[in-house]
Design a protein that fits this description.
The protein is α/β, with parallel strands linked by helices and 266 residues long. It has ten helices and ten strands. The radius of gyration is 20 Å and the shape is globular. 33% of the residues are buried.
C-alpha cells in the first residue's frame, strides 16, 4: 500500500446529539485504488463513518484527513477547499429518495456540476455522457417520482459519477434491489475500480464480498473497528462474524417453540 492514504481517520469518535455513540476511537486508512468494505451489524457505525468521509458530519474527537488536508466544518466553509473536496469525493446513499430531488432526471444529474461552477456547455456534455454510460438516456426528461427503485438508483449514481470523483462512497449499494439490478451494480463498482476509482462501501452482502472488496474493516456493536483483513480471512473467521452479529450462532429448529404455540399433530 502507498505510504500516504487518500483518506485517513485518526482516533475518530462521534456521538449523535452529543450523547449516543456512533463511532468510538476509529482509526482507518483508505488507499488509492482499493475497494474497502465496511462490515457490521445494523447501527454499528458504518453509515456514520461514510458521512464523516463525505464531510457531512464531523468528529467529536479525532482527526479526519482527505488528500493530505484536515477536513473540518471550518475548512469546508472555504469555497476553494469545499469545491476541491466535493469534486473528489462522491456519496451514493442507501435510500435514493434522499438523494434524488430535482424535477427531471436531466436536471438531477446536472445539479452538481452546475453548482461547482462548470460552464453550461461542459455540463451538457457530461450529463449526456453519463446518461449514456448508465443506459438511462431514455429517462432524461422523466420525473424521479415516476421511476422504479432500480431506475432511481441509477440516477443517484449518475448524479455522483457526473462529477468524476476520485473516491466513491456507497451505503448498502445492493440493498432492496432486484437480482438483475444488484448484479449490474456490483459489476459497475468493479468496473469503476478498474478504471481507477477508490471505492468505500458499507454492506451486508457477504456473498458478493470477494468481488466488492479487496479489504474489509469489521465493526463491533460497540462502534469500534475490531478487525481488518482480506475478504477470505474475514469470511473464514466464524467466531468473528458471530461476535459482531453478522451471522447467527445457532441453526433453525434448535430453539423449541413455547407449548402454547405448538399445533397438535394431524
Amino acid at each position: 500500500m502507498p505510504d500516504h492514504p487518500l483518506l485517513a481517520l485518526h482516533g475518530v469518535s462521534y456521538r449523535y446529539l452529543g450523547r449516543f455513540p456512533a463511532l468510538v476511537d476509529v482509526s482507518l486508512a483508505v488507499h488509492e485504488g482499493e475497494k474497502l468494505a465496511l462490515l457490521g451489524a445494523n447501527g454499528c457505525g458504518k453509515s456514520t463513518l461514510l458521512k464523516v468521509l463525505d464531510g457531512l458530519v464531523f468528529p467529536d474527537e479525532g482527526i479526519y484527513e482527505a488528500f493530505g488536508a484536515k477536513v473540518t466544518d471550518a475548512n469546508l466553509e472555504d469555497e476553494q477547499f469545499n469545491r476541491g473536496f466535493r469534486s473528489r469525493v462522491g456519496f451514493v446513499f442507501q435510500n435514493s429518495d434522499a438523494q434524488v430531488f430535482s424535477p427531471t432526471v436531466r436536471e438531477e444529474i446536472a445539479f452538481g456540476p452546475l453548482n461547482m461552477g462548470l460552464p453550461p456547455g461542459v455540463v451538457d456534455v457530461r450529463v449526456a455522457d453519463t446518461l449514456e454510460m448508465l443506459d438511462i438516456a431514455d429517462l432524461a426528461d422523466r420525473a424521479p417520482y415516476q421511476l422504479s427503485g432500480g431506475q432511481k438508483k441509477r440516477v443517484a449514481i449518475a448524479s455522483v459519477l457526473v462529477m468524476n470523483p476520485d473516491v466513491l462512497l456507497f451505503d448498502e449499494p445492493t440493498a432492496a434491489l432486484d437480482p438483475r439490478t444488484a448484479d449490474w451494480l456490483t459489476g459497475l463498482i468493479v468496473d469503476l475500480n478498474q478504471a481507477g476509482k477508490t471505492i468505500v462501501l458499507a454492506t451486508h452482502d457477504l456473498a458478493s464480498l470477494d468481488v466488492l472488496a479487496d479489504r474489509c474493516a469489521v465493526f463491533s456493536e460497540g462502534h469500534r473497528i475490531v478487525a481488518e483483513g482480506p475478504p477470505a480471512g474475514v469470511l473464514g473467521d466464524r467466531s468473528l462474524l458471530e461476535s459482531v452479529n453478522l451471522v447467527g450462532g445457532g441453526r433453525a429448529g434448535e430453539r423449541p417453540l413455547p407449548k402454547a404455540w405448538r399445533q397438535p399433530a394431524k
